[in-house]
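Rotation project, supervised by the postdoc (A.L.). Task for the rotation student: set up a whole-complex structure prediction and record inputs and outputs verbatim in this book. Inputs entered:
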Amino acid sequence: MGPIAVRAWPADDSDVSAAELLTTVQGNLDHPYSGYVEAQGTLLLPVADRFTDVGELFGSSTRLRVWWRSADEWRVDRLLATGETDLIHNAQGTTRWRYEQNDADLSHDPDIRLPRTADLVPPEVADLMLSDAEPSEVSRLSAARVAGRDALGLRLRPGARQTSIDHVDVWADADSGVVLRAVVVGKGSGKAAFTTEFADFSPVTPPAERTRFVTPPGADFEFDDVLDIADAANQYAPVVPPDRVAGLVKGPASDRAVGVYGSGATRLIAIPLRGREAEPLREQLRLTPGVREEPQAALVMIGPLGVALGGSGGDGGWLVAGTVTPDTLLRAVRDLYRGMVIVGDER
Amino acid sequence: MRALTVELHQLVRSRRTWVTILLIDLLPTIVAVLLAVTDIGPRPGTGPAFLSAVLTDGTLFPLAALAIVLPLFLPIAVAVQAGDAIAGEAQQGTLRYLLVRPVGRTRLLVAKLVSVMAFVLLTLAVVAVTAYVVGVLLLGTSDAGQTTTVSGTSLTQGQMIGRTFLALAFALLCMLGVASIALFLSTVVDSPLGAALGTMAVLVASTLLLTLDAADVVSDYLPTRYWLAFIDLFRDPIHWRDVIRGTLLQAGYVVVFLGAGWANFMTRDVTQ
Amino acid sequence: MIRTHGLTKRYGAITAVDQLDLDVREGDVYGFLGANGSGKTTTVRMLLGLVLATSGTAEVLGRAMPRAGREVLPQVGALVESPAAYPRLSGRANLRVHDALAGGRRRGRAGRVDDVLDRVGLGGVDQRPVRAYSLGMRQRLGLAHALLSQPRLLVLDEPTNGLDPQGIREIRDLLTELNAAGTTVFLSSHLLAEVEQMATRVGVLDRGRLVLQESLEVLKRPTGRTYVRTPDVAAARALLDGQVEAYDEASLLVRVRDVAALNAQLVGAGVRISELAPEKHTLEDVVLAASSAAGDRFDRDVPRVGS
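Outputs recorded:
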């Protein structure tokens, strides 16, 4: 949030068409940059222990410093009032540095994982939402000043009927094409569910030293075989989900127990949870205002984000979450139970 | 400047000054002792900045001590000290005798402000030195002779000292902002307690509004908004954004409130 | 030394001091009389630049106040309304602070402080803090403050407040002595007797207005009547028929200016005289004649004047 005077400065617009702008944005998804990002989520997810970090990402404001050399070399620091939690990605993998805990964890950045801070920077949000958008789905918005730069506006109205997202507005830097601001608005709501924008931005390639990390003396270092609960389920759960649920196709990265379906703004993830993981989440869900208890699953919509948990009472179950409508979510749960294949003993 | 000399003289000779500094200094010292005895750091995301890090590196304790005293103790002391500046003299009846001595009104105001800042400087110095000594003695130094930044990189001792002084300067500026508000109120009301409480009310309101999303539009202009931004000086590279904004904001508060205080005091009837 | 023209101070709708034309001359002991709330203190504060006048001008030592305060005030010693000092410091330490503020050099400071303490009768005071002082001691310390810079003009507001008769006498002697040595004294007081005993000139303030300003000598001029005390009242009345204005069983008041002639006439007629004196105006009569009701009285529908 810059001083009012700066924000009020009129932005230079351009007469580029929506389709052209979409092409520019999609073509610049790996453009290098660095800057300072403020993200504001308004979605209060029902969180239980192993999902706490995700809940924070979508439900509070996050301050990030980003140095992006390429998809293979980047660093995203989450700034906290009392420290930092940083992700440094390079050839070794992804290192998470936590100042307050004084530890560094290295992991092999799995494709299947829970959302993390690095997913909140505007270009990443744009990547997630716009990567396969069609020209017919986009229109132009007037330009805006973001981080003191002229940014051209583009609105995506996803065509898929399954999606719960009404529209996604992005503003891309007029010079570099990098997305500087992204706003996600759910169906049936006039308010932004999630906003992320640069407050300081530079399109210059940051120095290589930014993406190197050496564990400081005295700090703990660990290698994590398992990054998070999604990664764990993906590696060890003895099931394979079907190739298609609720009319959405499973993505190519989903070759094991966790399924990621759909694309762009219409996406859901299905994670098989064991009883002791599912139960606390089920408890939380029950306490969440607006929860729907269907025979096959408990379901709640938090803004455009739907969460459903199949199974009941002490059993494990499929956790399905995504930017889809409640009906799609329920259909997905039903399709999962119908179409999953048990692959024998735990691997 | 005679008034300034006299003010500073009174400041260092006053028992109240030293008792206040001692009380402020006591809190971080107690914290250091507790940390050393129990070896339990605060849970992540809670407690003052740097407090978790001092368990491995006692030389960081001056910063933790700064984070401990800056949000509450120090501003209260500054509000009391600066609130007393003019209103205290007025209430005692000594203001009229100072003015007919004569001490110029502008000079008196400047002398009072400088004296308050000298108090802050003195307090910060005492807190920093005690915290360093206590930190090293009770919590030990890190083995490497280097300090880890918040971002996980290493700083040499020289860089560390430089950044610590920057942090102290920033804290000093924040307290100058508080002093300006209190000094302004001190020229408005005739009760030093009223001026101090008024200042504290402003600070408490500011702190409260900062936690409120609805107050987002004004949050960047609240006096306490950037107080704890000094931690950004210990990231790598230094995250200047909030430090610079904090500096400009405090400068704004100083100019506005000192200006208002001066204008008010210059045109005010001294009837006390 | 002090000269004001149309000096006025209004607090909102209340006029505390109204069109004041003061004239205090060098060498005067000027008695500034007025009831409580008549505007004396406001006037004193305006003279010293503490209160800013609504309109009118004030000159002190020939310079405009408050503009020339930095040049004027070092030559003025003041006791404003009541003495005040830092309660935690001793009287000596308080005086040292003021000496430093007045620009006195460090060297000789102790001597100057001791000197004024001696003058006000606090020479032997110990190191106890001012908050432990009695009212009288505070008053003396306040005077010491005023005397510290060896002023040409002393502006004193109720200087004998809180002093016992002995103390009042000492202060009076001190002021008389200072005046004799050339110091002009502006003495604001509501005590008629105090002013009558010391002042050479008198100004009377009533509800913010200066109703009288005259030398004490003129004010206390003879009334043109003579007071006769005699055991032979009847004989005297018979002799002075038509000139007696009042009488009782032991005295008469006679409208005669020439006391010597009256004496000769009475003695010649065999009237025994035990006392014979020209009647003079008293300050009290003059002041009461010039002023209205007491300032701290609240009568219905009478506009109140603040201090």
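Student's summary: DSSP finds ten helices and two strands in chain B.
Supervisor addendum: The two ends of chain B are 25 Å apart (CA to CA).
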